[in-house]
Amino acid sequence: MTHKSLLYFFLLSILPCLVFGQKDANKDESKVPEYSIPDIFVNLKGQEINSIQDWVHKRRPEIVNLFEDNVYGNMPKAIDAINFTTVNEDKMAMNGMATLKEVDIEVTNRSKKITIRLILFIPNRKNQPAPVFLLINHRDPENIDPTRKTKMGFWPAEEIIQRGYAAATFHVKDVSDDDKVTFTEDILNTLYPEELEKENGMRGLGAWAWGAMRAMDYFETAPEIDSKKAAVIGHSRGGKASLWTGASDPRWAITISNESGCGGAALSRRKFGETVKVINTVFPYWFTDNFNKYNDNEALLPIDQHMLIASIAPRAVYVASASEDLWADPKGEYTSLQLGTRVHREIYNMEGNFPKVINAPGNPVHLPYAGHHIREGKHNLTPYDWNLFMDFADKHYGYKSGQ
Asked: How far is residue 385's CA from residue 200's CA, in Å, rounded to a whole number?
């Protein structure tokens, strides 16, 4: 059976759940319940957080631990060995614009091994290490075709190269299949089987974030890459994983979430579009078992998604939405970004504020420490989005595209 056939049957299998969720979802702003959110500036001991030292040593680690325990699961640290092997190199890729490297990242723990295939294009005209965008790809592998015989707007590698950035990606199937039956067959069964026995153990999205961190391990060894100027990006479920990557690993300069919705950038307590119950029902393998406790009980969560964004501070964060993607709750994503980046402003004294009301499509807001835009259209990652992400990175790095 082909990959596309398997995907087709998987979508058929979850269609009843998806239809049920979409049918019952609230997409009426007037029906959003009254809610209060946890204060990012008061820790669990009731202590006020008002300095960088308090944030770094008291509140931020506490928030990350709360997300580990209640949403994404543990992030295992144990690695016995990690090796990088270039299995394919083409110095004249993209008609000479780039060097293609396909790198196998082999990770060993307790004598068991898994391999992640990293696809990396590096601009040839640069005379210095290139900043890099890493895409966490959960869509069909044809979206990231290293031969470039198939080109998709989801990963416009040529445009990224033309802007002077390196374009990197991996497919999530190398760390955890996007499938409720086979998601354990990669790193979970092989490297960290104990996580499957824990109520707060790693699950699918945590595994994807772990995979992105291994790509960063490689970037730090690659002289052609400026690992200090690395951005991690994901769309939809990949956007949830990218936010968790940025929160878990401070090596990322920019964390980008595109239309990540529930369990990503959107506030869970708004109960708009996809809800905690719906996402846990349809995708039970994405989050830790403890997250099920909050089905229809979002008010009991000790955190909300604005705190995930806050945990990325002082590093940069970007949240993007689409006007017709009400399932992902664009307003909830924007509100979460506004609230979460208070840490950038009030603890780190960074300049700039987001407008009180979300801007109309076509009017991105790019602050020194955070970005936002809403695009006309449906749920997707498009070249338009990518160009705005690169515009933000240009500004953030003080970088002139193409140099």
From this structure: 34
- SS3 assignment, position 111: coil
Say whether 236 is catalytic.
yes
Gap between the Cα atoms of 172 and 238, Å rounded: 9
Closest CA to 349 of 29, 34, 55, 46: 55
Q: Which of 236, 248, 311, 321 is catalytic?
A: 236
CATH of domain 3-397: 3.40.50.1820
345-402 pLDDT, tens digit per residue, is 999 999 999 999 999 999 999 999 999 999 999 999 999 999 999 999 999 999 776 5
Q: pLDDT class for 22, splitting at 50, 70, 90?
A: low
- The model's pLDDT over 118-169, given as tens digits with 9 standing for 90+, comes to 999 999 987 899 999 999 999 999 999 999 999 999 999 999 999 999 999 9
Predicted confidence (pLDDT) per residue in 320-345, tens digit: 999 999 999 999 999 999 999 999 99
Length of the chain: 403
* Angle, helix 237-248 to helix 60-67, in steps of 10 degrees: 140
HEC string for 76-95? CCCCCEEEEEEEEEEEEEHH
Instruction: Specify the 3-state DSSP secondary structure of 98.
Output: strand
Place of tokens 């009400």: 326
Count the helix, strand and coil residues of the chain and give each as a percent rounded to the nearest 5: 40, 20, 40
Q: For 230-258, what is each residue's pLDDT tens digit?
A: 999 999 999 999 999 999 999 999 999 99
- pTM score, two decimals? 0.94
- Helix intervals (H) in 137-294: 157-162, 187-190, 204-219, 237-248, 276-282
341 three-class SS: coil
Cis check for the bond before 314: say yes or no (omega within 30 of 0): yes
Sheet holding 370-375, edge to edge: 81-93, 98-109, 112-123, 166-171, 130-137, 225-235, 254-258, 316-322, 370-375, 365-366
Q: How far apart are CA 125 and CA 399, in angstroms?
A: 15
Please give the single-letter amino acid code of residue 125: R
Per-domain boundaries in the chain: 3-397
- Count CB-CB contacts under 10 A for residue 43: 18
CA angle, corner 153, sides to 384 and 394, nearest 5? 45
Q: Is 373 a catalytic residue?
A: no
